[in-house]
Write a structure and sequence with these properties.
Elements lengths: L1 H19 L2 E5 L2 E5 L3 H10 L8 E6 L5 H13 L5 E6 L6 H10 L3 E5 H7 L16 H8 L4 E5 L16 H5 L6
Parallel strand pairs: 3-4, 3-6, 4-5
Antiparallel strand pairs: 1-2
Organism: Aphanomyces astaci (Crayfish plague agent)
Family: Belongs to the MNN1/MNT family.
Pfam families: Mannosyl_trans3 (PF11051)
Length: 181
């Protein structure tokens, strides 16, 4: 049964990828493919989401090849009842516009961050060193970058059996919080 669920999820992600690579409209009864630039599309998405007041969430580091697993993780989190903001971090354009579309189509409470681009633009990271933070080294960079005060760091290939937001209420976590948070 788990294998069947995984197969269905993969087919769903491929389907979303196929329909997300172009916008289709009808004109005179025929399909007309309209393309919009990546920047136009991202501006439209970001206009509707302001997560600046959120103080806790889930952080996941991703790249294009991990999108099926990341998409599955997002659906799994929501199926378990999790409503926290999910931040998807990547470095120097590791996520294509199609991957952005897939993730945003799956969930509106999601934020995609190119941490290397942000750090290079702010002068905190030399452009020549940015690609050194891909893969495993992206995690500490993302933790330093996030504006969230409380973070659960997950890998895209994690399998969860309970909503991880339950951890926010455990006595061990509650007792360890600084008083200024």
């Amino acid at each position: 049964m788990p294998l069947l669920g995984t197969c269905i999820m993969c087919l769903f992600v491929v389907y979303i990828y196929m329909i997300s690579t172009s916008a289709v409209a009808m004109k005179d009864g025929k399909d007309v493919y309209e393309s919009i630039s990546k920047d136009q599309w991202l501006v439209q998405i970001q206009r509707h989401h302001d997560f600046s007041s959120i103080r806790r969430g889930i952080l996941v580091c991703v790249f294009d090849a991990m999108i099926p697993m990341a998409a599955s993780l997002v659906l799994e989190l929501r199926a378990l009842g999790n409503t926290d903001l999910i931040q998807m971090y990547h470095c120097n354009g590791e996520l294509s516009a199609a991957s952005h579309r897939i993730l945003y189509m799956l969930d509106a409470r999601l934020e995609i961050v190119d941490v290397c681009k942000d750090f290079v633009a702010s002068g905190r990271l030399p452009a020549a060193k940015a690609n050194d933070f891909r893969s495993f080294w992206l995690k500490p960079l993302a933790l330093v970058h996030t504006r969230l005060a409380e973070v659960i760091l997950l890998d895209a290939d994690d399998l969860l059996f309970h909503d991880p937001s339950q951890l926010w209420q455990t006595p061990g976590y509650m007792g360890g919080l600084p008083s200024n948070i």
